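Researcher: Here's the sequence for the chain we discussed earlier.
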Amino acid sequence: MSITESAKVEHRFLPSLNESYTDGIIITIIIDCYFGLNYIKKSIESVHRQEYRNVELIIVNNGANIEISKYLEDIYAKSKNTALVIFKENQFSWDDTEITNAICWNAALIHCRGEIVSHLSYDDMYSANYAGKMAKLFNENPGCMTAQPLVVSINSSGDINKNSNFLLHNNRPRYKEGKQVALDFIQGSPKKMFSSPGGCLAIRKKLLLKYNGFEQGFDIFQLLKYGIFGDIGFDSGAILYWRHHDKQTNRQLSDRGYIDLRNYKRDIKQSDIINIWKSVFSLHEVDLLKKYFKSELTKLPFKKVRYMVSHKNVFGVFFVFFHTAKECPELLFKVILFSILLPGRIVLNKFRR
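Model: Thanks. This is the structure I predict for it:
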């Protein structure tokens, strides 16, 4: 869905009632809200606590209930550099779980003041120095088109998950040519330059507008579509606290056995990413991207089965069978065989350890 199509979805934009910016880069942070009020409060508070003054917060009310809507309206009325986008109806769909990326985020992108734009999930948080660190990366290097903080995994209570350390999988200097980071990623990350979840990148607005803004599948394309231009900055001193909890959409999707192959294929085509790569990479490198997508599409049903078996979700395994038969019937026999052999493999691996 293009920016123009997204803008046609009925919504209201309320500009900030109290603006206070200094000279320098303005960073816009978008948060879309629908449920999880306790998480929303912490997410918004983390933006309002930023030490860097030139931060614009755009809150998107994605058809939230009365309690959440009232909170968002109160925050909007009393906060500086805070705008509000209001959708009467929730834009989420189980048939297209990332449609909110295209509709809600682009509504904010169209109206935002910032030269740099990032999206923060309603249940995640930034460290207080995030915006300042990102602004410094872009200020120091005009060729820096995207930038990233360190991602730290936290649980539902906000405690750090000690068994997850993304620093070990972001093995790159302060600046690195984005093309090299992307190539390493699609070849299995042998140099461990990038391994971060979700939309963790801050991106120059002009780049987003040039290449159709936010879209379904943005998590997939944040690096492969936008990170390939210019340098990608990285500062491990700034932190994105990425929360894991049972109500996350991706977990609910996994529990329902969704595979989303059709949407994945659509996102690849709609993003025009193959042609974009042809404009900046060699034909051999474009072939590597095609092989990466083909491999990822094939792996999806098997990843879902592994998730179900590891969580002892028997019904979930049959849901995966159902969706595999519906979306990629040619893989159904292999997926069933894999699910039968997997428990034995898991036990054998434990025995070997």
